[in-house]
Amino acid sequence: MSDRNGAIIRVEHLTAGYEDAVVLNDLTFEVYRGEIFFILGGSGSGKSTLMKNMVGLYRPATGVVLIDERDIAAAEGDDRLDTLRLFGVMYQNGALFGSMTLLENIRLPLEEWTDLPSEAMEVIARMKLQLVGLTGFEHHMPSELSGGMQKRAALARAMALDPQILFLDEPTSGLDPVLSADLDRLILRLSKTLGITFVVVSHALSSIYSIADRVIMLDTDTKKIIAEGRPQELRGHSNEAVRNFLDPQSADQTG
Ligand code: ADP
Ligand code: MG
């Protein structure tokens, strides 16, 4: 379906949380096709909760999430499967299966979701490992890899089904600055070469300034979006918390 303003995801009046605790109150925003979109906010502000509602793992209390114009929570049967196949997810702390090789880990979604012959799955899994620079490590176990390589393998697994959108929850957490920058470059390359839309949860300023096209910032107290836009433009934001987050040096200077 054609889309007037290029949105691939629309979140409309989303209110969500757990039991009776509301974590996100009436959020409305869009993610445009092909962009690298960051979800920012302090620890506990609901970034992971938002991502889980966006991928249909949780059902919002009210409001809707439309992915490619389809309601992710309401879709059923083939419609639901078609929608789920549009995206891949890397959860926070989401690990590879430790008892399987990298190749087996990446074949898993293909075995679960497709009827491809075994050889085809093998070829696809190898291609995905190549995309993230892990050719030669097909038969390694995750524990034999560095943290940065494990993240890249997890990214390869999230891409197994050729998603249009990748959701990454804190992909660079636990990585040193050099490995974080490597992963950022990989995300940028996948975005540019494959046109994948990225929704990234992060609070790494270096990542935000080097790869984010647009960001939203969640606020724990109001449970709302307190800032939305391009990172450079938000440095002069009227809200002090937003300014301090995006420009910590100026916060230091003023006190
Ligand atoms: P963030 O990812 O921004 O750190 P989360 O989305 O993980 O924040 O958490 C937002 C709020 O929801 C926190 O107060 C957290 O304690 C609470 N929370 C997260 N997961 C659960 C859960 N499974 N059950 C109940 N409360 C939760
Ligand atoms: Mg989180």
Question: How is this structure best described in words?
Answer:
The protein is of the alpha/beta class and 255 residues long. The protein folds into two domains: 4-86 and 165-254, Rossmann fold (3-Layer(aba) Sandwich), CATH 3.40.50.300; 95-162, no CATH class. Helix content is 38%, strand content 24%. It is built from ten helices and ten strands. The chain has helices spanning 47-54, 77-84, 102-113, 118-131, 147-158, 177-194, 205-211, 231-234, 240-246, 248-254, and strands at residues 7-18, 21-32, 36-41, 62-67, 70-71, 87-90, 165-169, 197-201, 214-218, 225-229. The strands form two sheets. Strands 6-7-8-3-9-10 form a six-stranded mixed beta sheet, with helices on both faces. A four-stranded antiparallel beta sheet has the order 2-1-4-5, covered by helices on one side. A hairpin with a 2-residue loop joins strand 1 and strand 2. Helix 3 packs across helix 4 and helix 6 (177-194) runs parallel beside helix 7 (205-211). It is globular and about 55 Å long. The N and C termini lie far apart (51 Å). The relative contact order is 0.16. It binds adenosine-5'-diphosphate (ADP) and magnesium ion. Magnesium ion binds at residues 47-48, 92, 169.
Share of residues in strands: 15-25%
Order of helices and strands: EEEHEEHEHHHEHEHEEHHH
Task: Compute the CA-based radius of gyration.
Answer: 19 Å
Q: Look at the structure and give the mean pLDDT.
A: 92
For the record, what CATH class of the largest domain applies? Alpha Beta
- The CATH architecture designation of the largest domain is 3-Layer(aba) Sandwich
CATH superfamily of the largest domain: P-loop containing nucleotide triphosphate hydrolases
Give the number of domains: 2
Give the distance, in angstroms, between the N- and C-terminal Cα atoms: 51 Å
> Going across the major beta sheet, what is the strand order?
6-7-8-3-9-10
Helix-residue proportion: 25-40%
In one word, what is the shape?
Answer: globular
Q: What is the number of strand segments?
A: 10
Q: Describe the biggest sheet?
A: 6 strands, mixed
CATH topology-level name of the largest domain: Rossmann fold
Bound molecules: adenosine-5'-diphosphate, magnesium ion
Helix/strand-derived category reads alpha/beta
Uncertain stretches:
none
Helix segment tally: 10
